[in-house]
Amino acid sequence: MSDLSRLSFNSQTAKHWPLPELIDAAGRGGLGGVGLWREPVREAGIDRVAHLVRSAGLEVTSLCRGGFFTAADAATRQERIDDNRRAVEEAALLGARTLVLVCGGLPSGSRDLAGARGMVADAIAELAPFAGDHGVVLAIEPMHPMYCSDRSVVSTLRQARRLAERFPPEQVGVLVDAYHVWWDPELVDELALLDGRIAGFQVCDWVTPLPAGVLTGRGMMGDGVIDLGALRREVERSGYSGLTEVEIFNARLWQRAGHEVLAEACRRYLAHVA
Amino acid sequence: MSDLSRLSFNSQTAKHWPLPELIDAAGRGGLGGVGLWREPVREAGIDRVAHLVRSAGLEVTSLCRGGFFTAADAATRQERIDDNRRAVEEAALLGARTLVLVCGGLPSGSRDLAGARGMVADAIAELAPFAGDHGVVLAIEPMHPMYCSDRSVVSTLRQARRLAERFPPEQVGVLVDAYHVWWDPELVDELALLDGRIAGFQVCDWVTPLPAGVLTGRGMMGDGVIDLGALRREVERSGYSGLTEVEIFNARLWQRAGHEVLAEACRRYLAHVA
Question: Any signal peptide, and if so, which residues (chains A, B) (predicted)?
């Protein structure tokens, strides 16, 4: 039986699978960890989930998600920061190593990209010490530029690195998700410069044609064009020693039984990433 | 009557409008130029189109498209280069200032992004002197990273600039299309570094949600999130003195009468770009 101890399974990959069953299956399957999302954790009960992952001997590689710092008015921005504080506390309760930041797109009606990026930097500056005090690293996730207007105005590894470098590495790091960064001509150089700043590594594959809305068309590893093995080696060369987390948003995958999706993710990980 | 002499209308914006009618309307409307595509030009007859644009006093700001240099086998790559030579000759016949290069995505079944980028560089090196001898600038168009796998492995202004800088500016330049580059955190810095290398400037707007396939969802200027006026000023600050070309691929727009689309493009250009 091949080694899955370096693999983490993000719960959104099998989003309709009850979390307790998913955690149990990941533990029995010999995986090293799981990636969790706030809403399903809340539904199952955060104390219960924290107990289940510990009993299963699993690491929580990430909690999704914080961020969405960009808003037209200061009151809304403050609400977002307050909610991110709660997310940090939830991550600490779960023993999650990182809180993933989906930083937010342009405020409704705005064309001020520089202004939105400033809001993100200000919010992270306000949250960073709080996260560090809780033993949680804020993981800035540069998202594919096709999400710049509505998901994240942080679009490249360089941009995320420059933002993260303003803070101690125990407070702010960078999440490397293959789907978002595989295309970047600066990829290898930037991974090297991230030296010790990578707070998480997520994989899936890039497949076309993209579906309408471009949110649920991510591919299972091996179905697309990303050289995931080479990317994993560069990420490790940059000093990342954490697990590889499989996170796939795919409408067809969500129709399948959770245990089947987990089994296929494990096979594909061993064949295309490990 | 406001000044449209700095505006060029790309024929694909009203793709079902017969080219002779489009050219006539652009000339009467006081526009400065048109952007053309090889197939409709061939249908209408290249000598006839060349005569019509000259009689209408229009500049041909671009001919689309050359490129697609990436292919698994050498024979196919050579065919592509030969076809690009014909495209250069067609651009010269039309008096087009540039041949737009859509460089090509990953060869079928390939995950070798660096290799594909090498094929692009090799092909441009082979074509550049030929283009210069014909008075045509090869305009490398960095395309949005969401097209990296299937349209162009050249995804950013920096990447396009570094490629173009290997050649004299009268042989190779960079096409700046707002749709492809608006999100880039390096946008302003890279436009400055392009100093004299910008061979063309195209505008439309970024609107979401993106349609399936992400090809025909471009927005009319003002309908989206791009600060087109600011972008035009940066492009001009970089030394670009050419026309602004409107190029919009939009399934709904294509259902409307050509003269209506042209009229709206002119209004939107004056309101949001000029």
Answer: none
Q: Quick check: is A1 in a domain?
A: no
For residues B258-273, one letter each, b for 16 or more C-beta atoms within 10 angstroms of the residue's C-beta and e for the rest, the string is: beebbebbbebbeebb
pLDDT in tens, B249-267: 999 999 999 999 999 999 9
Cα–Cα distance, A258 to A238 (Å, whole number)? 33
The answer as to whether A2 is a domain residue is no
10-residue block means of pLDDT along chain B (274 residues)? 90 97 98 98 98 98 98 97 98 97 97 98 98 98 98 98 98 98 98 96 98 96 98 97 97 96 98 97
C-alpha neighbours within 13 Å on the C-beta side of residue B169: 10
Q: Rounded to an integer, what distance in angstroms lies between the CA atom of residue B260 and that of residue B266?
A: 10
Domain that holds residue A256: 7-272
- Write out the two tokens for B67: 């490129």
Q: State how far residue A177 is from chain B, nearest Cα, in angstroms.
A: 15
User: Which residue of A154, A188, A210, A226 is the best one to mutate when testing the B interface, meaning the one whose CB has the most B CBs within 10 A?
Assistant: A210
Q: Which amino acid is at A125?
A: A
Q: Do B146 and A214 touch (CB under 8 A)?
A: yes
Chain A within 8 Å of B112 (Cβ-Cβ)? yes
Domains identified in chain B, total number: 1
Cβ-count burial A125-151 (b if 16+ within 10 Å, e if not): eebbebbbebebbbbbbbbbbbbbbbb
Q: Is B119 exposed, middle or buried (0-12, 13-18, 19+ CB in 10 A)?
A: buried
Determine contact: A226 vs chain B, CB below 8 A: yes
Residue A157 within any structural domain of the chain: yes
Judge: B111–A206 Cβ closer than 8 Å, yes or no. no
- Burial environment of residue A165 by CB neighbours within 10 A (0 to 12, 13 to 18, 19 or more): middle
Q: How many CB pairs under 8 A join A and B?
A: 85
Classify residue B1: in a domain, yes or no.
Answer: no
- Kindly list the residues from chain A whose CB atom is less than 8 angstroms away from the CB atom of residue B155: 183-185
- Contact criterion met (CB < 8 Å) for B149 and A111: no
CATH for A244: 3.20.20.150
Chain A positions in Cβ-Cβ contact with residue B151 (cut-off 8 Å): none
* B157's tokens: 């202004």
Q: Name which of B144, B148, B97 is nearest B120 in CA terms.
A: B148
